[in-house]
Amino acid sequence: MEKFMLIFRNNPAAFEAAAPEQMQANIQRWMTWMNDLAQAGKLAGAEELTPSAKVVTNKQVVTDGPFTESKEIVGGFVIINAANIDEALEIAKNCPNLEFEGSVEVRPIVVREY
Questions:
Q1: Which parts of 4-80 fold into alpha helices (H)?
Q2: N or C: where does the chain have the smaller number of CB atoms within 10 Å of the terminal CB?
Q3: How far is CA 70 from each of CA 43, 82, 88, rounded to the nearest angstrom?
Q4: Within-domain flag for 6
Q5: Which tens digits make up the pLDDT trace of 15-70?
Q6: Domain of 67: which CATH number?
Q7: What are the distances in angstroms from CA 102 to CA 50, 62, 64, 87, 91?
Q8: CB neighbours (10 Å) of residue 97?
Q9: How confident is the model at residue 55, as a pLDDT?
C-alpha cells in the first residue's frame, strides 16, 4: 500500500456565491466522503488549513497572505492509503472539493527512513 497526499485548492469566489443550502449539502458530502475513506481503511490523516498564510522567500522576506491576486487557496489536505496512483486518482474524483470550482492535486508520498 502506498501513501498519497490529496491537496485541496478552493476558489473563494465560488464559495461566496453559493446558497446556504448548497454549502450545507457540500459539508454533508465532505462528512460522508471522509467517513467512507476511514471505514475503508484508506484515510491516514487529514487537516484543514486556515485561509491566512505567511510566505518566506530565499531573501528571508516574510509576506502575509492570502494574496488578493490569488484565484485559489489551499484549503487542506488528506493523506490516503492506496494501491497505486490510479486508485488514488479514483478516490480524488469523488472528492466534494470538486464542487464550487475546486481541485484536488494527487501527490505520491516518498517514504524515507532516517
A1: 12-17, 20-39
A2: C
A3: 29, 31, 27
A4: yes
A5: 888 999 999 999 999 999 999 999 999 999 999 888 777 878 777 777 666 555 55
A6: 3.30.70.1060
A7: 16, 27, 23, 20, 15
A8: 22
A9: 79
CA-CA distance, 28 to 57, in Å (whole number)?
38
More confident residue, 74 or 42: 42
- Grid look-up 446558497 returns 19
Q: Higher model confidence: residue 102 or residue 72?
A: 102
Residue 101 lies in a domain: yes
Q: Is 33 left (phi over 0), alpha (psi -120 to 50) or beta?
A: alpha
Number of domains in the chain: 1
Q: Which residue range forms the structural domain that includes residue 24?
A: 2-108
Grid-cell match 475513506, residue found: 37
Looking at the domain assignment, is residue 13 inside a domain?
A: yes
